[in-house]
């Protein structure tokens, strides 16, 4: 008897309060949207095979990259780890029976689905071509596309995100089992806690910005219209006030996954646990102070440029601390190369590159040349795809046995991880070079001398696509034919591994008591020895 | 555990109507004050006075009507974080506008 | 409690203060009524934090444009009626008081007191919206709604306008008068957003009045009333700031 078999029927899923079922619902939905966003990416890369804008009209190309960005950011990356792995695992990791607000959790999924359907409707009825950043006055005055419906979809998705974050914060504060102090929490919980703070405090500003854009577009109120005395830069201030913390909303949960995976597959406590925990919160706090680094060339004051550039340097420090601590965790660890660990290695290398290029961009002097070029595109794909997406896949593979009770086939999954890594590098590394050479972003055509690198990039994208398709196939296959996983196939610490796979609906038959340290592998050995002794 | 005990206290600390009436009267007085102040020429202190009075009224509502005075430290921290972030949004954005050389300030 | 097989080992028992060990409103994933009440209260506060940030964007816009276009904002603000604005403020503050008293009634299990307080809050809230309707109607008639045949007449010729004349306004130059539209954009956005929150609050109040009459909140389970009270006070606080910022920019003669 487990949470999957307890009740059957569509309604038992659609009206569930069980955080684990909601997580599965989310997993299916975000995978669906991921592939739509991926198909759009494929179209972008196909267009960019040739220097001319010959595959589609330039207006269509604008729509394609806009929808790619919106779907990938709001409908895949933002909910990816929190709504799937976070929803499933956080209550288990803290020894609780469910999240604090199960109905709000379900509402969150319905809002996500409503927003997603609205987004799809927008795509079918002509799309939107402003870029995912909706910059005014383009979005308010100069385009005839579905800005309003897209804005509404993002607004609703924002509330989905807010409710998830709110639920996590309340749960982590109020539902920890006896003995579970803050410094015994797995780092995955810390990371999601920090991301949740960002969700709760940042997303509402996006909401009001969308409302203002909608009012501007419909009745012409003039807050962003220079002709009426408004300032278009104000839009960008309000937009980026959310959208910069948004990137930390996206990456922090992934970093949480990496902490768990690296610890488990080096069989070692995470080095500098306190530093990693606090660095998550530091990223969340500092992440609110740097948004105007997206606006260096837009007309903000020189003073602002200097201040935001300086603060951007500071925000890189906690991320770097994490990378150092993970590296020191590996040092003298007992490392094995299961699939989650391969993805984690990929994350560490690619996120480091992406993060460092972020520092290049935070330096306003270099940013003036690199902004709006493919360097930016490469930077954020390295952190988001090379970083976050790999972390997501790492987490899905790591907790797959717990969630489904099945093991996936190891060899093909390792192959997929390697294929993904190779494909990723071929796709996005050339884009750094293209950006430095001056190829602008969001253009369907480019000077012919850039073609070779673009062809490389597209070739890489096709390999990357295979790398992403494989997990969908073999993970689905494993549901029926995979080996039955035990409670703890990885011999990991963590309360979620001390109970059955898949878990009971109420997670634990007996409320656990956290009487040992976190990442305590000696305690785990002791438990195993006890089990062996009791069998004898 | 400590949070549980503190919560226990909040549940049972019932704020008396006398407090509510006092705060209500204060709010009425401050409302009158702020209307009156807007009729007096105080130069740059007009907006300062208006915001200050509004802040005092807000603090009274938050502490007493919303029970924060009797709440856990966690609640106070959460409220503080909310205001802090609100001030960051306004302050850092305004800092950009103030420091622009457009001659509008 | 539900029929789950959960056995609580080692979890500290909540002090019994005379409540039933398994009240019907205790959700199964909570250990105790105190935990549930504490948790939902904290959740409500977090929601209010999102509301602070939501209005924050509007206040940011307001502060910037007020400083850019001060004369236009002063002239435009004179179009708002101080009597209605002050009355609205008093109505809302009183409704906050009656709401707080309602929470007290719920906590002390005075059912009829609670119902009375909720009804008073409801009426005061409706009164606020009624006055808002009167004000909006006036704006519409005078063509002071941005995007709908916005008229600069009141600012170019203040003598033609009662409110401007009473405030002793001088005629504004055309380029400055144009910026009054920014003021009204923010006026409608901010008071409109506030009104939306009031409408939602009044709707929930209506629901609560019915439930209170059935005794739902005076049997020990007061969290719904308490948490709604937080929301209502928050909406009051927003107005506490909107009032001086929109109505009281400068009422002394120029």
Topology readout:
The complex is a heterotrimer of chains A (536), B (105) and C (254).
Chain A: H1 10-14, H2 19-47, H3 58-93, H4 102-124, H5 138-142, H6 147-174, H7 187-219, H8 232-266, H9 273-286, H10 302-330, H11 339-362, H12 364-370, H13 374-404, H14 410-437, H15 451-481, H16 521-535
Chain B: H1 2-12, H2 17-37, H3 45-65, H4 73-98
Helix pairs in contact in B: 2-3
Chain C: H1 33-68, H2 70-77, H3 82-107, H4 111-141, H5 153-156, H6 162-166, H7 174-178, H8 180-213, H9 223-247
Helix pairs in contact in C: 1-8, 1-9, 2-8, 3-4, 3-9, 4-8, 8-9
The fraction of residues in strands of chain A falls at under 5%
- Which protein chains are joined by the largest interface, and how many residues does each one contribute? B-C, 56 and 55 residues
- List unreliable stretches of 5+ residues of chain C: 1-20
Termini separation of chain A: 27 Å
CATH topology of the domain at 83-148 and 177-247 in chain C: Four Helix Bundle (Hemerythrin (Met), subunit A)
Average pLDDT level of chain C: 88
Given the C-alpha coordinates, what overall shape of chain C results?
elongated
Helix content of chain A: 55-70%
Quick check: average pLDDT of chain A?
95
Terminus-to-terminus distance of chain C = 69 Å
Compute the number of structural domains of chain A.
Answer: 1
Radius of gyration of chain A: 23 Å
Fourth CATH level, the homologous superfamily of chain A: Cytochrome c oxidase-like, subunit I domain
Strand tally of chain C: 0
Order of helices and strands of chain C: HHHHHHHHH
Main sheet makeup of chain C? none
CATH topology of chain A: Cytochrome C Oxidase, Chain A
Order of helices and strands of chain A: HHHHHHHHHHHHHHHH
Report on the biggest sheet of chain A. Answer: none
Low-confidence stretches of chain A: none
Question: What would you call the shape of chain A?
Answer: globular
